[in-house]
Amino acid sequence: MDTNLSDLAAQNVAQVVRDAIKDELREQTRKQRHAARMYAGASAAGLYGGAAVVACAVLALALVMPGWAAALIVAVLLLAAAEMMKRAAKPGPGAAVAGTAGTAAAADEPPMPEAPPVVPPAGSPVGPPPVTPPAVPHAREKE
User: Which of 67, 75, 114, 143 could be cross-linked to 62 through a Cys-Cys bond (beta carbons 3.0 to 4.6 Å apart)?
Assistant: First the structure.
């Protein structure tokens, strides 16, 4: 027999560890699938609830104006809200965009604390000194 007893024990330990890892991953995946289903259900219920609120708004406005005008007003309001949310979601001019080279290094670094606000000493004026207009010589009126 050419098999080494230590190799056999190492293979058995490795197999047991692999099986334990597979079981743990299977359990975590099952829990994540359940959570994903719950989020999907909540999203669908929220979508239908929002549609019902929009329909209610259209029908309420239709009591005082034609139905097409009520639907148009609600649609314009929804599109304006969507545009504002889209603009709010865009990063500012100095913000890093996800997927750029600097984001991987920045994710490893701890966040920098914010600097305290600069408070001027008591008694000193805040802001630049007031500017007085230059003196304008008075024109003599002709006599």
Answer: 67
Note down the domain range covering 59: 5-90
**Rounded (10°) CA dihedral 78, 82, 84, 89:** 160
Residues 6+ apart with CB under 8 A from 96: 102, 103, 106
Q: What is the pLDDT of residues 69-88, one digit of tens each?
A: 999 999 999 999 889 988 88
Q: What is the pTM of this model?
A: 0.44
Q: Is residue 122 part of a domain?
A: no
In a domain, 39, yes or no: yes
CA 2 – CA 113 distance, rounded (Å): 63
**How many CA atoms lie less than 13 Å away from 135 in the CB half-sphere?**
2
